[in-house]
Design a protein that fits this description.
The complex is a heterotrimer of chains A (276), B (319) and C (263). Chain A has 276 residues and is α/β, with parallel strands linked by helices. Chain A contains 10 helices and 10 strands. In chain A, the strands form 2 sheets. Chain A has a 6-stranded mixed sheet with strand order 6-7-8-3-9-10, with helices on both faces. In chain A, strands 2-1-4-5 form a 4-stranded antiparallel sheet. The longest helix of chain A is centred in the last third of the chain and has 18 residues. The C terminus of chain A is likely disordered. Chain C is of the alpha/beta class and 263 residues long. In chain C, the strands form 2 sheets. Chain C has a 6-stranded mixed sheet with strand order 6-7-8-3-9-10. In chain C, helix 4 crosses helix 5, helix 5 crosses helix 7 and helix 7 packs parallel to helix 8. The two termini of chain C are 34 Å apart. The mean pLDDT of chain C is 89. The chains are: A alpha/beta (276), B mainly alpha (319), C alpha/beta (263).
């Protein structure tokens, strides 16, 4: 890359989980969720991590965000090392990052109003200014009316809830947005809308985005660079065009073959209209 | 696309559920009467409580003694009125103790690191194996029967149960996505527990407590019957019921009065618990705003978001 | 004609959630049923099965192999359902009983409808597990659902659906809750099963992009009505109704473009 600032950076990351012992004697088996992973995302860049469920991509994301500790390896943000530990030690990281999760029905506390949910980072990080006004402003940014701040999550649809989750992730002005399957739980028409919203926000707020997903369409539309993970390892990485257009690793090829794509759509349908 | 919401001022949802529905209203009324009786009996009863006229024992209801007299000639009505004090004491303190024990053990077993939490959970399970009666007997052996024994036995016994019941809820909430999102927003551990876990476990906890309240009164009746509860000089519905039941042949009506008061109060507490459960359901929490359009609730009818900026027509979507 | 639905109306409360739907599925045909959430597509499937929520009212005609299903008693419907219609739902996590073994669950309908003994039912279950391409069928029938992955659980659900050799298979968003990477495998399995058994398939989804993989004809539902129907090619390339257009456009907007020459 050119001289853009490095935001999140991980080197030699490992994450092992001890499993229940199979017998009383003998070693305790270990599950290797992440194996020797390196990762970089630069300012205003969009990077995707793709792979199946269980490939380790969500674990990697948590480690990068200091929501989990690596068994080995280091993570830093803008050249400042991250020490996962007490929340006070990572507060500066929380200011710079925002997180959106997959399930819009589980990521919002049902007992809080939309306004309270969105204001949570503002309170936790002691951001100065009128919080109500900031909440109203960010609601507008994500395409919701300001009066929705009084509503409760169960009064909103899935797409609206995901907008609220997005609002919460950006309200404190982070430089980096991380999304863990942000569109996967939504209907296809809503997905298209949220995809456009992400593009808009990225431009308006100069966001860097890390996208963890198995949705290749989303990745192709948003990401500049791609990491492919399988069984804990990064098996391939490069620009999105290169990896999706000319996959080198056999796993990447199998992965991409399994996902419905546009030429496939069109050629198939054209095939149907041809006389038998 | 959405019109200005009509704001309808109205009673907060929980108040509506609790006091305006029949179950809640009944429960609240009886509870109020109970408290009022307890208060009043501190200052006045129709006849002095301990005034015993053995030659006036077992009288039926009359204008002098509204509910008759007991086996040593005390006025039943006054005795029962004063009995409400004991009832209030038992219910209040049992519930409090159960709340403290339930919270402590529930939270410990769910939130403490596995080394501490798992053994605590096992401890709770072991404790639950002991019936409250057994606990009361164990306590009464050195200390003799008293209200205190009842309160402690019931508080510990049911408190452990509450701990057991709330543990999976606390676990579930602590592992939920919104807790993760909270941490990612920078909220500290202690704050996130108070902020998120308490309000979400709260409803279940409250309902469990209301069940303890109802059951504690029954427990007091049973324990007093067996001699582990209030001594004969303390007005207690349970004790009165026990005595009347033993001597039912002499004055059949005498069983009715304490039986009725106990039943009524337990029923009221139970119904109040039901109403409470409805009142604190998060799914039923509503904002004060009532939005007119159907569109808000039916996704298929409104695929477009609110702000005109993001409104897309089909032609804009297809590139 | 395996299935012929005429003027189906389902009323819940005061709303017609299905409002005059007519469609037909020929023997061995695969029909796609498209619509967003709330369009009535799942309720149509439930109406065919006779599994509507209590309080729902049904009118119209549903002919399964010439037998009228509307108006049948619950018991008669249950008998027909078990033997003649197989259904696969969206959520593999909740479709299976967590405390019973896989083989047990697959064999259940065989024991109930055909009186097979436990041993015979288990044998059939192993063969069915093999049919749906589960790894190591002999061993897997002894497993519990939580020991399987989401994709595997969905295959078990499919095995349960085809166990009695139904003439009609209904799949309601069977891949929506699964990784996009496993979708293709499940859809291929459906294709395979339908082709070899000659059963008919109704594939319900909100994702237009899946259609070419599974069917040649599709029906689009919105607000409980059929708004468009035709070949999949028409629906994707030249949709007429605005709602169909937005569905097709959304699929295009979120699908990815594979490089030329790929498949």
């Amino acid at each position: 890359m050119n001289t853009r600032t490095s935001l999140l950076s991980g080197r030699g990351l490992y994450r092992d989980y001890p499993l229940p012992k199979e017998s009383l004697f003998g070693p305790r088996p270990v599950r290797h969720a992440v194996i020797d992973a390196d990762f970089d995302v630069f300012e205003q860049e969009t990077v995707a991590v793709i792979g199946e469920s269980g490939s380790g991509k969500s674990t990697l994301m948590r480690i990068l965000l200091a929501l989990d500790s690596p068994t080995r390896g280091t993570v830093s943000f803008g050249n400042r090392p991250i020490e996962p530990g007490r929340p006070a030690a990572t507060r500066w990281l929380r200011r710079e990052t925002g997180l959106v999760l997959q399930d819009p029905y589980a990521s919002l506390d049902p007992r809080f109003s939309v306004g309270q949910i969105i204001a949570e980072p503002l309170q936790a990080l002691s951001i100065p200014g009128n919080h109500r006004r900031q909440v109203a402003e960010v609601l507008g940014r994500v395409g919701l009316s300001a009066w929705r701040a009084e509503q409760y999550p169960h009064e909103l649809s899935g797409g609206q809830r995901q907008r609220v989750a997005l609002a919460r992730a950006i309200v404190h002005g982070p430089r980096l947005l991380i999304g863990d399957e942000p569109l996967s739980a939504l209907d296809v028409t809503i997905r298209a809308q949220i995809l456009d919203l992400l593009r808009e926000l990225r431009e308006q707020l100069n966001l860097a985005i890390v996208l963890v997903s198995h949705d290749i369409g989303l990745v192709q539309h948003l990401a500049e660079r791609v990491y492919v993970m399988s069984e804990g390892r990064v098996v391939e990485s490069g620009t999105a065009d290169r990896v999706l257009g000319n996959p080198q690793h056999p796993y990447t090829r199998t992965l991409l073959d399994a996902v419905p794509s546009i030429p496939h759509l069109l050629s198939q349908s054209r095939r149907e209209t041809l006389p038998a | 696309m959405t019109s200005n919401p009509r704001v309808r001022p109205r009673l907060p949802y929980w108040a509506h559920e609790l006091f305006l529905r029949p179950t809640g209203a009944f429960g609240a009324t009886v509870l109020f009467l109970l408290l009022a009786s307890a208060l009043v009996s501190l200052f006045w009863t129709p006849h002095p409580l301990l005034q015993a006229n053995p030659d006036q024992a077992w009288l039926g209801p009359s204008s002098q003694h509204w509910l008759g007299t007991d086996q040593i000639g005390r006025d039943t009505f006054s005795w029962l009125l004063a009995g409400s004090r004991t009832a209030v004491l038992v219910v209040t303190f049992s519930t409090l103790l159960a709340a403290v024990i339930g919270t402590t053990f529930g939270a410990l077993s769910a939130l403490a690191p596995r080394r501490v939490g798992a053994p605590v959970a096992v401890l709770v399970d072991i404790f639950i194996a002991f019936p409250v009666l057994l606990l009361a007997m164990l306590l009464a052996a050195p200390f003799g029967g008293s209200i205190g024994v009842v309160v402690i036995a019931v508080g510990i016994g049911y408190g452990m149960n509450i701990g057991r019941v709330t543990r999976p809820e606390i676990l579930r909430i602590s592992q939920s996505d919104f807790m993760l999102a909270s941490r990612a927003s920078g909220v500290g551990t202690v704050r996130s527990i108070l902020r998120h876990i308490v309000p979400n476990v709260g409803p279940i906890f409250i309902v469990q407590l209301s069940m303890v309240a109802a059951t504690s009164l029954l427990a007091e009746a049973g324990l007093s019957y067996l001699g582990y509860g209030a001594p004969s000089t303390t007005p207690s519905w349970g004790r009165t019921l026990a005595t009347s039941q033993q001597l039912i042949g002499v004055q059949p009506l005498s069983v009715l009065w304490p039986g009725l008061t106990i039943t009524l109060t337990v029923l009221a507490l139970t119904l109040l618990g039901d109403a409470l459960r409805e009142a604190v359901d998060p799914r039923l929490k509503r904002s004060a705003l009532r939005v007119r359009s159907d569109a808000e609730t039916h996704p298929a009818l409104a695929p477009l978001p609110d702000a005109p900026v993001l409104a897309m027509t089909a032609s804009e979507i297809s590139r | 004609m395996t299935l012929a639905i005429t003027d189906l109306v389902v009323t819940i409360g005061s709303r017609n959630v299905v409002d005059g739907v007519s469609l037909s599925v020929a023997d061995g045909e695969r029909l796609g049923l498209i619509g967003e959430s709330g369009s009535g597509k799942s309720l149509t499937a439930l109406a065919i099965l006779g599994l509507l929520p209590p309080g729902a009212r049904l009118s119209g005609s549903i002919l399964l192999n010439g037998v009228e299903l509307v108006g049948l008693s619950d018991r008669a419907l249950a008998a027909i359902r078990g033997k003649n219609i197989g259904i696969v739902f969206q959520e593999p996590k909740t479709a299976l009983n967590p405390i019973r073994k896989i083989g047990n669950q697959i064999g259940e309908s065989l024991r109930i409808h055909y009186g097979l003994s436990r041993k015979d039912a288990l044998e059939r279950a192993v063969r069915l597990a093999e049919r749906v391409q589960l790894p190591d069928p002999e061993k897997i029938v002894q497993h519990y659902p939580h020991q399987l992955s989401g994709g595997q659980r969905q295959r078990v659900a499919i095995a349960i659906a085809i166990a009695t050799g139904p003439r009609l298979l209904i799949a309601d968003e069977p891949t929506t809750a699964l990784d996009v990477t496993i979708q293709a495998g499940i859809i291929e399995l459906f294709n395979d099963l339908v082709e070899t058994s000659g059963a008919s398939l109704i594939f319900i989804t909100h994702d237009v992009a899946l259609l070419p993989m599974i069917s040649s004809r599709a029906v689009v539902l919105a607000h409980g009505k059929v708004i468009e129907s035709g070949s999949v090619a028409e629906i994707i390339d030249s949709p007429r109704h605005p709602i169909t257009q937005s569905l097709a456009a959304a699929a295009r907007a979120t699908c990815w473009t594979a490089p030329e020459g790929a498949r």
